[in-house]
Design a protein that fits this description.
Radius of gyration of chain B: 21 Å
CATH superfamily of chain A: Cytochrome c oxidase-like, subunit I domain
Number of helices of chain A: 17
CATH class of the largest domain in chain B: Mainly Beta
Structural class of chain B: alpha+beta
Distance between the termini of chain A: 53 Å
Largest sheet of chain A: none
CATH class of chain A: Mainly Alpha
Order of helices and strands of chain B: HEEEEEEEEEE
Largest interface: A-B, 73 and 61 residues
CATH topology of chain A: Cytochrome C Oxidase, Chain A
Distance between the termini of chain B: 72 Å
Helix content of chain A: 55-70%
Helix content of chain B: 10-25%
Number of strands of chain A: 0
CATH superfamily of the largest domain in chain B: Cupredoxins -  blue copper proteins
Radius of gyration of chain A: 23 Å
Number of domains of chain B: 2
Oligomer: heterodimer
Structural class of chain A: mainly alpha
Number of domains of chain A: 1
Largest sheet of chain B: 5 strands, mixed
Chain lengths: ~575, ~160
Amino acid sequence: MRRLQPEPAEPAGGPGAELYAQDRGHIQAFIYISFILLAVGGVYGTLQALDKAQVDLYPYLPGFLSLYYTGLTFHGVALALLFTGTFIIGFLSLAIVHGLKRPLADRGLAWATLTVAVAGVLAMVVPIFRNQATVLFTFYAPLKAHPGFYAGLVLVALATWMAALNAWQTWRTWKQDHPGERTPLMALAALATWAMWFLASLGLATALLVYLLPWSLGERETVNHLLTRALFWFTGHPLVYFWLLPAYLSWYTMLPAQIGGRLFSESLARLVFLLFVVLAVPTGLHHMYTDPGVEHSSKVVHGVMTYAVIFPSLVTAFTVVASVEEGARRRGGRGYVGWLLALPWLSDPSVAGQLLAMLIFATGGITGLINSSLNMNLVVHNTMWVVGHLHTQVAAAVTLTFMAVSYWLVPLLRGRPLWGRRWAVVQVWSWFFGSAIMARGMHWMGLASAPRRTYMSFAPYYGAFAEWNWAGIMTASGGVILFFAGALFFMIMARTALGKPNPAEAPQSVPEAGPLHDPPPTPRWLDRITPWFVLGAALAAIAWGWPLVRIATRYAEMPGFQLW
Amino acid sequence: MDIDRYERLWIMLSAAVLLSLFLALVYSVYALDIRLVDDAGQVDPATAAQTPPFDEPGVYQEGPGRYRVVMVARAWSFQPAEVRVPAGSDVTFQVTSLDVIHGFRVPYTTINQMLIPGQVSEFRFRFAEPGEHYLFCHEYCGVGHHTMQGRIVVETAATGAR
């Protein structure tokens, strides 16, 4: 693997041992916890995919594990909230450490973050498996879960804030030691992700702390369910960007180095991450287009803003592909299209996995545009189409990128070479095909009006729609491929992590791409975060202030229901 | 800031695409008058079942070829569970939920709404052809969610309405 350092003034420390020594423990713990959640949540995912073809394997599980909606709740919570959250904390911590070439500012805080996150995960998972929180990962009131469910999510959110704080402190001390220097892109990208997430998570925190947790504890009789639903989507849409930006971070700042190339435009890369801080939050009402009680004009504003947030992703499409092309040409690629063949599609699982993730991600961008259109949304809202869209983004683009990243990250932090590189290549390709096939089946089912989040094996109307069956078989086939691709991933990871220590054969450093134009002429305003954060907060206040106040002050509240 | 020639072109194209989407949206809202479901009134969920019009759910003829369907949703049924209207009818639905959040979906139509307790969902659809439609809940509402369904029977115009 070829490494290009943009600023040789500060050597990364060759063998990364010293640089990562302080933080390798808690980062690995986060990564392994995320793997466990991915494994169990993934098994349920396969069962749900099979259910779409009316193949019901749930009854073969013991006790509460055999309940469809309990499994569905665990699948969503474990994958959308917990796997992503824990992996991202670990990965962004490493990006800060490598980006700033220094350990995290507060070692104690890092371990405290891990403790809080583990407590949160357990507090959520235990009531789910005791069938006391079968409310799905969106937990819309007036469905009322066990207090542990809400308290656990508060702790997980708190853990993300603690990790963000640690990153921020590390940046501050770095700036004191490097007055006047440009913040390295990798660190800036991680910090921008944290800033975006902090702003976005305020909605969820308010919903949980002010309303849902006191309500489930009996401190509050009733809750304004439309308000908590809106607050969920305040966070729920930018949550997708919280998953996505760490993948972008890898595509921009690491992947080009893995290919042997450089980053095409560092200034635009910075602009992209900072634009997400500004544009990510005022978008969530497009999830509530069909909700009565939310006025039309606010929905239109959020629809427009959702189009705007596509802009940084379109810029990414150019910059990342141009960087990949540059690397491919340095490897001897020729021709307008022929350079694609020079990429290590079959030899480097980490590179191939991320390139394949990008391919699926592009399709998800287009279906996302459809979802956010006022009128086309009526055709697809709450159908399996939306599930298909979500899976192209989180199951394919994000998860496949995280798997591909793990192929260097786990060997690096464990000091052991990757076990079974060829198997890993098979793994990323089969994950790619599995998710593409499954998502295609889901989109098809959705266009045939099949509802999402529905136990199809027992839906009395399933048989009336011949198309559902074919589309469901396609969904199930993709799900089965994903099951085996997932099992292969965990086997490779386990054999890597438990293999013989061999630091000399393991990767020595986080891959870091230098800029194509050296030194990059980066303007000052692309080296700051606070002004962008203030701008984002202002936009969020404008787009969300009125609808939230309106809902909070006008509407009836409800007691809780436990309909499971 | 140094931006490559092709990259600049790409950025301008991206901006143009997004701008045209934005204009299409503005056009559809202001010129075509496409409106999303909005505020169609509130009703106290605790007493909705005793409050007009939801105290008497059913199908009401409002004029030639115009019907109003008043419906309540609760876990896990719609009332009335069957709606009969003649083909060619313009039907206005007025629906609310008595307990948790439900959905209201008629396959292969644009009828696709959320039902929020306390809120009235009001929407219209023209059933041009005779035939039978399912209607089902599309938001998770507890363990019986997948059984929550109803029917809309569009009869040939001659048979008339109930």
